[in-house]
Amino acid sequence: MNASPEMSFDEMLRVKLEVLLREHRDLDEAVHALAVTGRPDPLVLRRLKKQKLFLKDQIVKIEDQLIPNIIA
Length: 72
Fold this sequence. Notes:
Blueprint: H1 9-36, H2 42-66
Helix pairs in contact: 1-2
């Protein structure tokens, strides 16, 4: 049996998805920590939230690619 050391496309997508989910969680924690400080910098908060939305869009796209296209 010859096992290929290369990852399949789905496996690569799953790894990328995990990385994006981790980054999204980290940004969420950063936004929360900044908000708790009392007087957060609105520009920094806006940038972090924008980055979170960008990551969320990428996450949704990858999840859509991983879900089989079943016509009911």
